[in-house]
Amino acid sequence: MPGYPPDSVITVLPYSHRREADSAVIGDVDRQVFLSIPPEGLDVLEWFAEGCTPAEASRRYEAKHGETADLDDFIDAMVAEGFITVDGATGDGATGDEAARTVTATAAAGTATGASGAAAPAGDPAPGLRWKSHMEWISQKTARRIFSTPVLVLAGLVIAAGVLTAVLNPGIIPGATVLLFPEHFALLTWATMAIMIVGIYIHEVAHLVAARAAGVPARIGIGSRLYILVAETDMSGIWLASKKERYVAFLSGPIVDGVFGSVAIILLKLMETGALSVPQEIQWLTAAALWTYFGRLLWQCFFFMHTDFYYVITTAIGTRNLIKDTEKWMLNGLRRLWRSPKREDLSDLSPREMKSVRWYSAVYLLGRGVTIASLFAITLPVLIGYLSQAFLFATGQDSRINSFDFATIVLVAVLLDGGGLFVSTRNLLRRRRARRAEQALHGERLAAAQTAARAGAVGS
After folding, report:
1. Cα–Cα distance between 445 and 460 in angstroms, integer?
2. What's the confidence (pLDDT) of residue 24?
3. How many C-beta atoms surround the C-beta of residue 222 within 10 A?
4. Any idea of the CA torsion for 203, 209, 211, 212, to the nearest 10 degrees?
5. Residue of 142, 143, 292, 293 whose CA lies nearest to 206
């Protein structure tokens, strides 16, 4: 690859940024592309935005950091990701002031890495192209009121009351087998499913509103974890927000689940004491609803996946790719035990990041342990209960369920597991297509920049 002429015109496209001590995040919210770069890289990008040529930026870099900068690779990376274009030698294009454009973010804290979303070629954006958010009718002012300090304090008090009630009255917390309703099985199962779906939607809306409070667009969609069907909120732009705003955005969903779960616990206590008189079916349904909220909170403790609690941890310690780096570090440990010479490369991690990886390995294993424990304590007992009742029904023996109940079990299994497998396969194919398109786009951008560099070299 030929080097870029020292007097090349670098056009910086609109971007937002957040800078901290050992990293910086740059992003294009409209294209949903976000990158973590060294702070020195942001210096260079800002100098380009001010109209500096590569030669001028190199001189400023050496004066500030005391070392010579090799900018060709950095320019390649920024061109490939669509943050800059190279127009050849000075005099063949616009002046630096006319070409440079930048938008500075108002937020600053935390880290981010990677790119998401398909990007239009740099320098040739579609007219009016913008990544649209869901529920844009909710203003930032309204969103901030919803997640204001008094509201969060009130939510914390409700959760504390629920936890205290459960601690003082452990008997009111039902086992997972409460989902095996002794009567009206189909009706109560579908009612529980409806409560679960509404709860999931409210959980994701909470993320969306919290992101809106931070001035970040967000969208709700359907995805999968492993083969399990899940709802998810894309709020990639939150990496440009302050650390406090990111905490609220990531914890908003669990806070909502905690509040509704605590209300369910308090209602169960009132029903037990007789202070609240309701039919038995309502008590069963309330207990089942509690398990839907508890299940979502338990899911957040699967620390080997990208859950809400995982993002809270990465925000707190300021690391990138924590799961992948931890898996690589643990794999290297196993290979040392096996006396295998093969190693995963972790040389790009700083000492602070390596320390984070080491202690997170314990958290990672805890998440695996929680998954296994929930399998044996929750999933298998409920599954065995369903299967045993279905077997009794199929063989003509006494059973809690009838033909409609049996059809409900089958349909729920097909919807959840079959839907999860379908979405997983669909997303896998989409990611492959997106990677190919992104690679092709990067190649086109680099080829155009290199052509401009050669033309500039000849012209000079």
Report:
1. 22
2. 84
3. 13
4. 160
5. 143
Alpha helices, DSSP H, located in 338-418: 351-374, 380-394, 403-413
Distance CA 376, CA 382 (A): 10
CA atoms within 13 A on the CB side of 80: 16
Terminus-to-terminus CA distance in the chain, angstroms?
A: 18
| Three-state SS at 99 | helix
- C-alpha 51/C-alpha 48 separation (Å) is 5
According to the model, what pLDDT value does residue 195 have?
A: 93
Separation between Cα atoms, residue 356 and residue 313, nearest integer Å:
10
Within a 10 A sphere around the Cβ of 103, how many other Cβ atoms? 12
Work out the angle at residue 253's Cα, subtended by the Cα atoms of residues 250 and 256, and round it to the nearest 5 degrees: 140
DSSP state, residue 411: H
Q: What are phi and psi of 80, to 5 degrees?
A: -60, -35
Rounded Cα distance, 127 and 146, in Å: 34
Give the residue among 119, 67, 60, 23 at the shortest CA–CA distance from 440.
119
- pLDDT tens-digit series, residues 241-294: 888 999 999 999 999 999 999 999 999 999 999 999 999 999 999 999 999 999
The token pair at 120 is 């239009």
Is the model more confident about 62 or about 1? 62
Spatial separation of the C-alpha atoms in residues 411 and 409, rounded to whole Å: 6
**Distance between CA 143 and CA 245 in Å, rounded?**
12
**Predicted TM-score of the model (pTM):** 0.76
Strand-strand pairing, 219-225 and 8-12: unpaired
Could you read off the pLDDT of 287-328 as tens digits, one per residue?
999 999 999 999 999 999 899 999 999 988 887 789 999 999
450: amino acid identity, one letter: Q
Mean pLDDT value across residues 15-37: 82
203, 253 Cβ separation under 8 angstroms: yes
Rg (CA), the chain: 27
